[in-house]
Amino acid sequence: MPPTEPVTATRVASIDATLVRLPSAHPRPRRADPAGRPRREPHALVRVTDDRGISGWGEVTMADPDRWRLLVDHYAPALLAHTWHRPTEAELAWAGLPWCAPVAAGLDSACWDLWSKQRGAPLAHSLGGERTAVTAGVTVHRQDTLDALVQEVNRQVGSGFRRIRLEIAPGHDIEAVRAVQESYPFLVLQVDARGRYTEDPADLDRLRALDSRGLLAIEQPFAAPDLAAHARLHRELRTPVALNASVDSLAALDDAIRLEAGGALNLRVANLGGLTPARRAHDRAADAGWDLWCGSDSESGIGRAAIVALASLPGITLPSEMPGAGGHTVRDVADPPVRAHDGITPIPLTRPGLGHDIDFRALGNAAVDSVSLDRQGRRTVPAEPAD
């Protein structure tokens, strides 16, 4: 459990938000432009600073452009007006706002980073983590041919990844799994269906066929709201059904546990709204006997550093998601970069907070908009801090 010593109240003095576009380090083949250049993914990096000048960092994935407006016009001002003793109380600042989990996740994670630095503790220890390193897994997306799929799996296995997660869909499932397993019969393999199946007989037959392949899990076979369908399938199969998009709140997780709609959970910080609800979800799922791993929403290094800290928790039983080998070499804003080496990602325990510096040169080169807010509401372009 995290330390419980008393702490003084924190009032955030300023919040800097920087909208950046960073090249996706490992895009799906169809996401690169005709010239082969990586697609630039939007992110918002947020820095919360207290009255002593100590800063914490978080990240908001910006798939929806409205998230930037929610961040700078609503969520950030609400946090500036809020006093909290522990980062678990920061979420009360936006309790009355329209809910946007990725925006809440960025600010919540930044508050955890700030609090850890105030205490001189690594973020992993503040969360209650016990590990010194995380076993890494990687997702291999659908490829144009089975030969291309096996070649991509070969690249990831050669880089040391211990678990491969294959993206599947009806018509690209049984054959894909068989091709990979014939080349790598002892590979730890799971599949991610992304809600693409139904309970039609043909789809169920395919899922039953996958059940005979010795997979680690079949993730999110049905649409997110249909927990009953997941429960029926979970009762029928030997392979655990894993949930992802179905669990976007603690209430949804409670429903899934009650219905026995799965046996594993892809724990995603951005999907749940931050490290605070993600840690609570970890505790509830682990208590229910579920396997867990930490997933990713294409975060840059700042977001991934928070995910690595979360993956240090004792209930994380499966390899957690990291960027794969190959693809485009991208200069990230986290220094050193947050990556796996020979299938292992170290947890930084010698420095407080996230344990990574910010590369302000890379941040400035990627920035497309910047806003700085203080308690008086003034907005300026944020300057590089002394720390």
Automatic annotation (TrEMBL):
Residues 23-42 are annotated as: Disordered. SUPFAM superfamilies: Enolase C-terminal domain-like (SSF51604), Enolase N-terminal domain-like (SSF54826). SMART domains: MR_MLE. InterPro entries: Enolase-like_C_sf, Enolase-like_N, Enolase_C-like, Mandelate_racemase_C, Mandelate_racemase_N_dom. It comes from the Bacteria. Pfam families: MR_MLE_C, MR_MLE_N. Residues 30-42 have a biased composition (Basic and acidic residues). Keywords: Metal-binding. Residues 146-240 form the Mandelate racemase/muconate lactonizing enzyme C-terminal domain. PANTHER family: O-SUCCINYLBENZOATE SYNTHASE, O-SUCCINYLBENZOATE SYNTHASE-RELATED. This is Enolase C-terminal domain-like protein. It comes from Nocardiopsis mangrovi.
